[in-house]
Amino acid sequence: MQQHWTIEELIDDWTLLPVSRACSAGSQGANRLGLAVMLKACQHEGRFPARTREVPSAAVAFVARQVGVEVTHFERYD
User: Fold this and answer.
1) pTM, 2 dp
2) Phi and psi torsions of 21, nearest 5°
């Protein structure tokens, strides 16, 4: 997976659509962030990442701001 992203690329590829927000809305903390990140990663790559560390930190931070969860919660997502 691409590791370095411009802000324009993050907006284009990692902005949550309403359906993605709805899927993660029932979860909290690490699960809410992890689910949202995994959905976007799958949309981008056509597969779910085998490990959370495959997902670039800039993308995780960008999604974290959208779902209102601290980025550090992603470390606990399993």
Assistant:
1) 0.89
2) -65, -40
